[in-house]
Amino acid sequence: MKEYPFIPYSKKTYPADEMLTRSRNHLEHYTLRRTVREFSDKQIPDEVINNIILSASTAPSGAHKQPWTFCVITNPEIKKQIREAAEKEEFESYNGRMPNDWLEDLAPLGTDWKKPFLEIAPALIIVFKRSYELVDGKKKNNYYVSESVGIACGYLLEAIHHCGLVALTHTPSPMNFLNKVLNRPENEKPFLLVPVGYPLESTMVPDIHRKKIGEIAVWYK
Description:
Layout: H1 16-31, H2 46-56, E1 68-73, H3 76-97, H4 100-106, H5 117-120, E2 123-130, E3 132-135, E4 138-141, H6 145-162, E5 166-167, H7 177-182, E6 188-197, H8 213-216
Antiparallel strand pairs: 1-2, 2-6, 3-4, 5-6
Helix pairs in contact: 2-6
């Protein structure tokens, strides 16, 4: 069994007062992150997208298997195919698949089965999870795949926001049509579809609020 060589690790740390300031600034910046559904068609430089994906790929993963593939779609015809297939699934979901309590929870957000942003946004990043690898024709398992890819998607959204762009996390269900449209191999399963771009100047978002610290954290001292 081949072992990784180990190298020295160093990371800058900060005094408590500077750490507090940095944590507040970070919170203030990411509090501004919002999901949007109204995109400009203004193009994004390819290198920006590449850097966003490379940032996402710094996420930890089980046994360092990095079980993800990020597909970037800017081709208008492929975006059209994805929209048509996604809207077909979403129509079925909004008209019979989703239970009433789910529809009631979505109603205040104003969502429906129509997804024009899939064609308007300049780029779609579709994240696939790789449940196994094929090495010399044999299956090699990956580990904690959903957890690893989920963390990477969090990093992806943070990197998008950090660059001054906006995104939407879209999960039409089922998403198997993405394998067919993009001709992905059998060891990849679609995990998340993320339109990325600039917001329209007229973009509106729901006036919603995040839970307070006492609602999401429990301290044991």
